[in-house]
Design brief:
- By secondary structure, this protein is an alpha/beta fold.
- The chain folds into two domains: about 100 residues, Leucine Dehydrogenase, chain A, domain 1 (Rossmann fold); about 140 residues, NAD(P)-binding Rossmann-like Domain (Rossmann fold), CATH 3.40.50.720.
- Helices cover about 40% and strands about 15% of the residues.
- It has ten helices and eleven strands.
- The protein has a six-stranded parallel β-sheet.
- Helix 1 runs parallel beside helix 10, helix 2 packs across helix 10 and helix 6 crosses helix 10.
- The termini are far apart.
Amino acid sequence: MAFQLLNGRELSLTVLTEIAAGVRKLIAAGRRAPHLVAVLVGNDLASETYVAGKMRACEQCGFRSTTLRFGNDVTQAELLAAIAALNADDEVDGFIVQLPLPPHIAEQAVIEAIDPRKDVDGFHPMNVGRLSIGLPCFVGATPLGLITLLDRYGIDTTGKHCVVVGRSNIVGKPTAMLLMQKSNPGNCTVTVCHSATPDLARYTRMADILITAVGQPGLITSSMVSEGVVVLDVGITRQPCATARSGYRLVGDVDFDDVAPHCAAITPVPGGVGPMTIASLMRNTYLAATANPLDQS
């Protein structure tokens, strides 16, 4: 069957353009541009790439952006002190601490140290808790990107069975909570599968909407989906590739060529969920500067 490509790269440009228009109005009204700070620890190549992409998006939106760098030898106390300073800085609207962190630093302690009103990653327990009961909050960038894809492409979710493969705190759990909300997109019946789920294909074949976020290349094949399914592939893994100039290629959890002909709609990898994650981070930063959701009841 013919499938619709859910082009996150194109949609993200639309979202960034909308945000940039809002920033121009702010500046015309005499207000400053939103300011996003990225805290980068160590010299992880993937983290460097991700942060660089976020900083480029800030430029596209007209934001002020700052990258705060620390070496691998930074202590937890030093990092927490830097976070406290960002919390107290009225010129900083939102900030992120790029994960993963070195093993000697407790990630959860760092996440909980961030002011929830500046937590544009949506990781703080206050934002996650508010999300779980449907209160205004900062929604994690990847789950928000998934919801935006469903919304802007007009995919009906009400009454649909959504199967989420992966139970991470960053993607799987918050995505499941969003899709259970009495909203549009939302109003789904949600099943969450994970590494301890026996006979995964039994569940994925029942999905009207399948979201996978486990980082296992080619996990989902055509035998595991029903005809007309909508597939959103969050997984992204570098695989060696002799014919690629970079020496590697990016692949998702879904065997795209095998699965796509059976789909009503599907995201590519790359160019699907990834760009929407960055666009959603920009949206959260704009909200932090203009209409903070934690100021709403």
